[in-house]
Amino acid sequence: MIYRDIYLFVDGERIGPRDRETRPVLNPATGEEIGLVPLATGADLDKAVASAQVGFETWRVVPAIERAAIIREASDILRDRIDAVARLMTLEEGKPIGDAKLEVAAACDALLWSAEECKRIYGRVIPARSRTTRNIVLREPIGPVAVFTPWNFPASMPARKIAPALAAGCACIIKAAEETPASCLAIIEALLDAGLPPRAINAVFGEPSAVSQHLIRAPEIRKISFTGSVPVGKEIAQLAALGVKPATLELGGHAPVLVLSDADAETVASQAVAAKFRNAGQICTSPTRFYVHDSIYESFLGKFAARARELRVGTGLDSDSEMGPVANPRRLQAMKDLVADAVQAGARLVTGGNQIGNVGFFYAPTILADVPPSAAVSTVEPFGPIAIVNRFSSETEAIKLANQLPFGLAAYVFTSPGKLGASLVDRVECGLLGINTFAVSYAETPFGGVKESGYGSEGGLEGVEAYLTTKFVALA
Question: Which of the following CATH numbers is that of domain 8-251+453-475: 3.40.50.10490, 3.40.605.10, 3.40.50.150, 1.10.443.10?
Answer without folding.
Answer: 3.40.605.10
